[in-house]
Design a protein that fits this description.
Helix 2 crosses helix 3 and helix 2 crosses helix 4. The model has no long low-confidence stretch (mean pLDDT 86). Helix content is 66%, strand content 0%. The N and C termini lie far apart (59 Å). With 143 residues, it is an all-alpha fold. It is elongated. The structure holds zinc ion. Zinc ion (ZN) binds next to helix 1. The site of zinc ion (ZN) has 8 residues, from helix 1.
Length: 143
Amino acid sequence: MKRPACAACKNQRRKCDEDCFVAPYFPAEKTRDFEAVHKLFGLHNIVNLLQNLPLEKRSDAVISMVYEANARVRDPVTGCTRILSELTQRLNALKAELNLVQNKNAFYRTLKQQQPGQQNMVHNNPQQLQESSFCCKKTDCWN
Ligand SMILES: [Zn+2]
């Protein structure tokens, strides 16, 4: 059974033979993805990029191009940049939260090692608990 023309050949209105270079990456059902990638990068650049990559990295490159092109379709002004910026902000917020939890954890470990009489003294001093929430400045700290 003959397979349908790949998305690239369909778009370019040319015959798609069995050894079509682009067919494995943009099969017929990926027409929308190809159109987005084609619009952003152009067919020449797509083929050029794929030819300059080792075979095992080509699929990942196509996934990356499709992601970037679809992001550009959804948001023509910022594309992937906005997504990256949002993820970076979220990562930084999570690092800060992790740092806070690690500091609280270290504080409670220290508290556990203290004498019972000293624990009450620290528990009754909320200022001391607040101060322990800041960056630990240890070598394993992410900040
Ligand atoms: Zn083709």
